[in-house]
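Here is one chain, start to finish.
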Amino acid sequence: MSSRTVIRGGLVVTASDEIHADVLIEDGRVAALAASGTTAAEAWTAERTIDATGKYVIPGGVDAHTHLELPFGGTFASDTFETGTRAAAWGGTTTIIDFAVQSVGHTLRQGLDTWHAKAEGNCAVDYGFHMIVSDVNQETLNEMDLLVEEGVTSFKQFMAYPGVFYSDDGQILRAMQRSAENGGLIMMHAENGIAIDVLVEQALARGETDPRYHGEVRKALLEAEATHRAIRLAQVAGAPLYVVHVSAAEAVAELTRARDAGLNVFGETCPQYLFLSTDNLAEPGFEGAKYVCSTPLRPREHQASLWRGLRTNDLQVVSTDHCPFCFTGQKDLGRGDFSKIPNGLPGVENRMDLLHQAVVDGHISRRRWIEIACAGPARMFGLYPQKGTIAPGSDADVVVYDPHAEQTLSAATHHMNVDYSAYEGRRITGRVETVLSRGEPVITEREYTGRAGHGVYLPRSTCQYLG
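Its structure:
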């Protein structure tokens, strides 16, 4: 039994085109596009017809940086694979790539198996995994080759968090050398964690314990220094590099310089760095704890560099680094000591809408919105054109988006399993109306019609930005 859906009358927006077209979906894939009103389009019949008149028809979002059920700081991220992927769907995101964690003393395979067990049968939308490499040794390096072969093609390392995820320069170089051989992509959390720990210790000794000091000790210069060092290590190894959650103007400058020199260096930023700032970390009482994440929020003047980097393609991807912790019972573990506040913000539901607001505000074009939120991450992590576009043969991950609807972001109405919104009270223009995942309606005219277990695991090819 084949199932057919037609989406009629919308403006189809992809990273490369904008066209008034009807979209024919058959058996979970895009079968054809035809200009609206033409004989070809009018001849299509289907069991389900969706009227997208006056709306955008866009690819489902690809959020390439989430942390669901992540253990951190003595607690766990509050979104499960079920709640997190459901919230993603509400926000127009139909693919997430989460991070499986290798614990020190364990193999990559053990970490990956643990994350498969968390996700399997629980996801409302499709998902893949990156691998956090915490313990570089010969066995780990050999395992990296095997993981690439089976579709886990990206590996994250940390220059931050000594004693937890931290890798030293020698471990980083070895992993980069291996990725240069096997085609994997190293993702780097670029902050000088050794130096930051000194500044944390000194701040606490001075009695500087409030959340705002989290941002003050994690200095922009230490992000820039680590970014520079990661680029040079990758250059020595002959490996590509992807720097995650870039927040500082000085770090953007390092990426820009490397790219101008022809290096395969890529960068990601996140909505929190584009829309929030140290003003939020300094909110009175303990409210600033809601905004503690790493890399930290920066003074507002850094935002211009991030927007410019997105426009010039020195930053290619906007992901969320969605890692939610409830204000009550989790963030408040750090009352009296900012270093004990679990690091992370909720955002998987808000990314597509906030970036549409950036279109409304004139920061980026509509096509660039789709590039940085859908096509770019899909290409970066080996999922294009299965994901990230609307084209014959692509998965029918399609969002009908109302560009005129107004909404107010709030914890009272969001679907993430967290007790606050980082964007509480923010009025934005644009809203998801209907979401299809592989042709199946997950959100239908602002009603959840999906189910846990619909989402399937996605093996990935290697980075498609490389020759």
